[in-house]
Amino acid sequence: MNLAVVGTGYVGLVAGTCFAESGNDVTCVDIDEQKISMLKGGKVPIYEPGLEEMVRRNAAEQRLSFTTDLDGAVKKSSVIFIAVGTPQGPNGDANTDHVRATAKGIANAMDGFRIIVTKSTVPVGTADRIQQWMTEETSHPFAVVSNPEFLKEGAAVEDFMKPDRVVLGGDNTEALEAVKELYEPFVRTGNPILVMDSRSAEMSKYAANAMLATKISFINEISRLCETKGADVGEVRRAIALDRRIGPHFIFPGVGYGGSCFPKDIRAMISMGEDEPEMVLLKAVEKVNQRQKGILIEKVTRHFGADLAGLTFAVWGLAFKPRTDDMRDAPSITVIEALLKAGAKVQAFDPEAMGEAKKIFADRIQYANRNYEALPGAAALLVLTEWNEFRRPDFVRIKQLLEHPVIFDGRNLYDPTDIRRLGFQYYSIGRNDG
Ligand SMILES: NC(=O)c1ccc[n+]([C@@H]2O[C@H](COP(=O)([O-])OP(=O)(O)OC[C@H]3O[C@@H](n4cnc5c(N)ncnc54)[C@H](O)[C@@H]3O)[C@@H](O)[C@H]2O)c1
Fold this sequence. Notes:
The protein is of the alpha/beta class. It is built from 17 helices and 14 strands. It is globular, with a radius of gyration of 23 Å. Nicotinamide-adenine-dinucleotide (NAD) binds next to helix 1 and helix 5.
């Protein structure tokens, strides 16, 4: 089938490439000319495991192409996916301007029936609005299908190829059937394609992210209580995770959630409930998260004092989570800004996010080429992202390179007893700080 995917970011590029991988002819469209020319040259502008190789192969086999020409892409495609960004608006609401512009652009380019599939995370009721926006522009028939995306950055290709479930919303049976067929190659092991009304589909995406963010804020709040009461959140986590009603996933304490989705989607949901009902729980989830982003700074200033002038800190991990270069709303930004504000210098390393970090901090911090190169002269090491390569480092070397053997571990990667035996002062989340 001929498909177009509008928006070639984390979601659109992965979706377009995976649809090409299953044999469709896919045109990926973006307004960002630089991104499109990079992709045309075989370069992938984001880091996502397995993606670059798949993009190159499908492009070489001429099933995947890139363009800024929406009109041409719409003319040759029967199904058009909208995967443009829905950033946070001024009141916390999701800004659907890009979705609106895309819907109108598609409508103006249409020369017959088309199926429009919304992959962007959009406020409940947006499918109806898309219908209206497009009707204002075209008299050609079309159907709108809501298809929220549940992939995780860092495992996006894998998630897309083997989704836990696919959710489709809409009321046009023919269109729903056509989109269902596109997903059949990815659900061969029996994972379900759920078909529902568009509002429920749109809500499902927000509800899923709200649940996940709630779990993170829950364990982070418990971790604070553990610290004040002398309990160990690691032990508590193990104990509650074995309860099948709770389970082991997404209850790891840390420095708060970040990324391009949870923060903005939680705020969008709070905004959706502005009139009624007040999102009491999600407001608390957000508040806990804001507080948690400051936990390492609380520990740093408790150790070194509020004035950090003259001190340098090594930071390992800038991306909001491992296996991505995405730094949108990353806790590392809050932590580094607070260090700089207190007068400290920062030497940072991340395996993939250095390019993104340079866009944010420019020359306000130092960038190391390897993790150990961030350490010389530093008063302490802060670990902010749980990249695998930070899990079993050479502690003897770390101790030699740091000015003081102090580690602030925002991800509980190390065993407190082992690391203290090596002579470190060790601070982590929800465990005895020694
Ligand atoms: N990143 C994730 O993990 C993830 C997961 C699920 C859902 N989502 C949702 O998917 C959507 C896209 O997210 P993303 O992370 O891929 O965003 P992104 O910022 O990485 O990519 C969006 C792309 O859309 C392009 N764009 C904007 N307006 C356009 C227009 N009018 N025409 C063509 N292209 C246009 C931008 O140039 C950009 O390349 C958002 O609604 C997001 O909430 C994201």
